[in-house]
Amino acid sequence: MDQRVTCCVTGGGPAGMMLGVLLARAGVKVCVLEKHADFFRDFRGDTIHPSTLRMMEELGWLDEFLKLPHQEVQRLYMQFGDTRVEMADFSHLPITTKFIALMPQWDFLNFLAEKGRAYPGFDLKMNTEATGLVHEGGRVVGVNANSPDGPITIRADLVVAADGRGSTLRDAAGFSPEKFGAPMDVMWFRLPRLPTDTEETQGRFDAGHVFIMLQRGDYWQCAFVIPKGGDAATRAAGLDTFRKSVGALLPFDPTRANDIANWDQVKLLTVAVDCLKTWTKPGCLCIGDAAHAMSPIGGVGVNLAVQDAVAAANRLWQPLKEGDLQMSDLRAVQSRRTFPTIATQRLQLIIQNRVISKTLKATGSLRPPGFVRLVSEFPFLSRFTARVLGLGFRPEHIAQHIRASNGR
User: Fold this and answer.
1) What's the pLDDT tens digit per position in 186-224?
2) Residues near 338 by Cβ (< 8 Å), separated by ≥ 6?
3) Residue 42: pLDDT over 80
């Protein structure tokens, strides 16, 4: 079965859904393919940063969006050894939404899907997995996919690969990312949160350990950072040993760690940092994790992906609608997003290599890094940290035409 659209987006994550909705709002006929039957996956990126919240505001959706269950984080705290520092204070950002919203990613994606369905040109195909590209005359002209009804081909003027860091279409297009490496992986799990617990989202750095706690209402979403490839050894040491390691890092009764009943509750995130040198070829564009996998440091991956989508929609809606898409348009999207991607990854790599790696290898008392000592001595610097983390290096704004459109 064949279908014809103007743009086919593969991957129903933050980048793919946001791009699909914005193009449809601008009047472009777009189809988004999502290989799963729903958006429910635990321990995905749940941090909605101020830059993304501002986009909800620009679209007129902010009040409705914030009715979804979420927690608002105005300040981030870090503890290095015995030194506790307020590392980021979002309350001074020059925007309305002066906080990070912690929200299950499936709620965010379901919200976008609902908004997209209001536009006549929006088609979301769930349980439909892209398997390859269709080439004609030296350019990409469509996607082959498996759907619940069998194989389908969707022909399009533009195919956007937004199918994550293991992107099938990126490989099919012949793109190969430059890999920068990471010294750590992350073990995610939940612990119950009691009314007497602190409200603070926080991180703790002790000799040999890095531990992050995100306040999620009635539970803590916890990240136990381990050396790269250390998952098997950690599990082999036994659950009791793991519980004791976690308990020693908790800011409350260490026996709370005993709520980790089995290893099934602990999910591994294999950390990777990479980036394509070329995001485009005729008829094809990569965005989000398909173009650049981010470290979980700062929780910025979702928001970089959304920024990519906005930049792509701003540049591409008109040539797509007018049937005049050129390679220069696709290159312009990559050019627009290259600097913030590289700058963010460079910052993440510095933190990975100079802070996290050293902390995991440390055996004695831990001395806070230089910048942490500066923030401790000059607290106003936490506003600078908040600006970099909350808004990024090149925050995007949704084009006025898209804001004003109704999908026609």
Assistant:
1) 999 999 999 999 888 899 999 999 999 999 989 999 999
2) none
3) no
Tokens of 73: 């984080």
Per residue in 330-368, is it b (16+ CB within 10 Å) or e — as a string?
Answer: bebbbebbbebbeebbebbbebbeebbbebbebeeebeb
Q: What is the mean pLDDT of the chain?
A: 94
The tens digit of pLDDT for each residue in 339-358 reads 999 999 999 999 999 999 99
Tokens of 382: 């936490």
Q: What angle do CA 202, 204, 207 make, to 5 degrees?
A: 175
**Distant-in-sequence, close-in-space partners of 30: CB < 8 Å, separation ≥ 6:** 5, 6, 7, 8, 9, 19, 20, 23, 24, 121, 122, 123
Give CA–CA dist 118/120, Å, rounded: 7
Q: Which two tokens stand for residue 222?
A: 């916890």
CB proximity list for 164: less than 8 A, separation 6 or greater: 11, 13, 288, 289, 290
